[in-house]
Amino acid sequence: MQLTLYTDYSLRVLVYLGLKGDDLATITEIADHFGISRNHLVKVVHNLANHDFIQTVRGKGGGMRLARSPDLVNIGDVVRHTEPNFNIVECFDMDNQGCSITPICKLKGALHRASRSFLGVLDEYTLADVLQNRDELSRIIFMENTGTRSS
Question: Where in the chain are the domains?
Fold first, then answer.
């Protein structure tokens, strides 16, 4: 299974904000750091705010921060709210079932179970778990922002 870039970017935003703590970060700041399209990141941030993962502050000096403590941001929940679907094979899509063996296929059940297991493992982790190496992450993220980025 491969997660979409949308989910990848959502997780990166959360990691970045988790490192910032209560300090605000801007979309431009995060987009520049990760080399992500600002327009694409606007959509990601909007979705994260709609699902109460982040809080946005409008106006001059505005930005965004986590809406809750990192230990309350479940990675499985983030993935469920950012992935458009979990159709890992064609027959999972109710509107596009071109496979002739779908009605009797036993593989479909195994793939459903694998997908549930994948999400079950992600449910065991929070953003706090991802931020356990906070010092190392901060050195990489914030040193790179000062122009000392190594390629």
Answer: 5-148
